[in-house]
Amino acid sequence: MGSGAAFHRAYLYATQQAFLEAHERAFDYFGGVFRLLRYDNLASAVRKILRGHRREETVRFIAFRSHWRFAAEFCTPGAGHEKGGVEGEGGYFRRNHLVPVPCVADLNGLNARLLAGCRADEARVLDGRTDPVGAAMVAERDRLLVRASEGFDLADVTFPLVDKHGCVIVKTNAYSVPIKAGSRVEARVYPSHVELWHGGRRIARHERCHRRRQHVLDLEHDLDVLSHKPGALAGSKPLAQWREAGRWPACYDELWERLLARHGKQDGTRAMVAVVTLGREFGHDKLRTAITTAVSLGACDVAAVRYLLTEAALRKARPDTIDVGALARYDRPMPTLAEYDVLLSGPCAGTA
Predict the structure, then answer these.
(1) Which residues span the domain enclosing 189?
(2) Interacting residues of 208 by C-beta distance below 8 A, sequence separation 6+
(3) Of 141, 170, 203, at which residue does a domain stop?
(4) Across 120-135, average pLDDT
(5) What's the pTM value of the predicted model, to 2 decimals?
(6) What is the per-residue pLDDT across 286-329, written as a single tens digit (0 to 9) for each?
(7) pLDDT digit string (tens) for 145-184?
C-alpha cells in the first residue's frame, strides 16, 4: 500500500462474519477497494493450503471477493517476514494509542477510539517521505476500485425448525422465537447478533452467543404462554436472563409485589404479565419509565400503567385567543348577581 495508512477495528470473536464486515468498514475508510489484498492463511478465507502459493478458498470468501472485485494473495506458512509491515503497524498503533490500556464502556466505544487513532495517524510523516499519510491517502484513492453500490450480504443463513420449547438451534445455541413449534424460520447470523425471520418479517433479534449449547431467551416471546400459566414466571429462565441483562429493574419487582398483595398469587402475576406485555406496544424504555412513575405514586394497576403511557397523547393544546376585530362591539358583559344581594339585606332576609 502506497500511502502507509492503516485501519484498525476490534471484535469480540474472530468469526467469518466479523472478518468480512471489517473489510467493508476498511473500504469505507480508504474510500475504495484495493485491487490486491494479501492475507495470512486464516480459516475464514482458506480451506486448504496447496502447493506453493495456491490455496483452496472458502465459498463465502470467493463470493465476497467477486462482489468487491479484488484479488487475494496468501503468505507462505510460517514466513512472518512476508507480512512484517502489518506486524510493525500493529505494534506502533498499540504503543501510541492503547498504552495505557483504555477504559471504555463497550465494544462500540473501543472501536470509536480505534477510529480516532487511525484519523490521528493520518498526520504522520513516514521516514523518507515529505507528505503526511492523509495526503498520500487522497492521492492513492484515484487508483482504487470504486466501491460497489450495495454491500455484500454478510449474514450466514440457515433455516432451522422451531422446537417444542419455542427455540431454534443456530450454531449449537438455542434462540427463542415467538411462533409455534414446527415452523421453519430463516436465521441470519451476523458478527454481533442473530436475526430470525418468518414470512418476510423479522420476528426476533438476539445478541449472538459465541459459546456452545447455550439458551438465549427473551421473556417477551413467552408472555402469551405465561398469561395462561402465570405460576411459571417466577422461576423461568427468560426472567433470569432479563434480570442478568438489567431489563428487569427493581421497580418491576415492587409493582409485582403490590399486584400480588392486591390480587393474589395467580391473578397478581397475570396482571404483571399484562403490564410487561405493554412493552410490545409502547417500547420497553417507555414502559420502564411508566412503571417507575406508577410505583412512586403508589399505583398498582395495569390500567394506571397504561394511562401513564398514553397520557401525553391525551393532553389537548390550549386554544389561542382570536382577535374578532369589529365583531367585538357585539360582546355582552359577563352576567352579575349583584342585584340578588338586595334580597339578602331586605325585609325578607333570614325568613323561611
Answers:
(1) 156-216
(2) 189, 190, 191, 192, 193, 194
(3) 141
(4) 92
(5) 0.77
(6) 999 999 999 999 988 999 999 999 987 777 777 788 888 888 88
(7) 999 989 999 999 999 999 999 999 999 999 999 999 999 9
Virtual torsion, Cα 157, 163, 165, 170, nearest 10 deg: -20
Domain count, the chain: 3
- What is the mean pLDDT of the segment spanning 246-268? 95
CA dist 5 to 24, 100, 215, 242, 282, Å?
16, 23, 42, 43, 46
Pair 212, 226 in one domain: no
Question: Do 80 and 21 belong together in one domain?
Answer: yes
In this prediction, residues 2-22 reach a mean pLDDT of: 93
- Torsion, Cα 59 187 14 114, to 10 degrees, reads 120
- And the C-alpha cell for 213? 449449547
Q: What is the DSSP letter of 318?
A: P
Distance CA 227, CA 233 (A): 9
Angle between helices 16-30 and 59-68 (to 10 degrees): 10
Is 93:133 a contact under the CB 8 Å cutoff? no
Domain end marker among 174, 191, 216: 216
> What pLDDT, on the 0 to 100 scale, is given for residue 87?
85
Q: Which residue has the cell 394511562?
A: 307
pLDDT tens digit string along 85-121? 888 899 999 999 999 999 999 999 999 999 999 999 9
SS (H, E, C) 269-312: HHHHHHHHHHHHHHCHHHHHHHHHHHHHHCCCCHHHHHHHHHHH
Element (H, E) at 215: strand 215-216
Q: Which residues have CB under 8 Å from 198's CB, separation 6+?
A: 177, 179, 183, 185, 186
Regarding whether 78 and 46 lie in a shared domain, the answer is yes
In this structure, the answer to whether residues 20 and 129 fall within a common structural domain is yes
The verdict on residue 150 lying in a domain is: no
For cell 423479522, what's the residue? 202
Do 90 and 165 lie in a common domain? no
Tell me, yes or no, whether 172 and 258 share the same domain: no
3-class SS of residue 193: strand
Residue 97 CA from chain centroid, whole number? 27
- pLDDT surpasses 90 at 249: yes
